[in-house]
Amino acid sequence: MKIEDISKSLGLDSKAFDRGDLIVKSPIDGSVIGRVQQATSKDVSRKITQAVDAFHHWREVPAPRRGELVRLLGEELRSHKDALGHLVTLENGKLLQEGLGEVQEMIDICDFAVGLSRQLYGLTITSERPGHHMRENWHPLGPVGVISAFNFPVAVWSWNSAIAFVCGDSVLWKPSDKTPMTALACQHLFERAAAKFGDAPDHLSQIMVCGRKIAQAMIDDPRMPLISATGSTAMGRAIAPRIAERFGRTILELGGNNAIIVAPSADLDLAIRGTVFGAVGTCGQRCTSTRRLIVQGSIYDDFISRLKKAYASIPVGNPFEDSVLVGPLIDQTAFKGMEAALEKAKEAGGVIWGGGRVLDNKYPDGFYVQPAIVEMSGQVDIVREETFAPILYVMKYDDFEEAIAIQNGVPQGLSSSIFTNDVREAEKFTSTAGSDCGIANVNIGTSGAEIGGAFGGEKETGGGRESGSDSWKAYMRRSTSTVNYSNQLPLAQGIEFDVG
Ligand code: UN1
Question: How, if at all, do strands 171-174 and 144-147 pair?
Answer without folding.
Answer: parallel
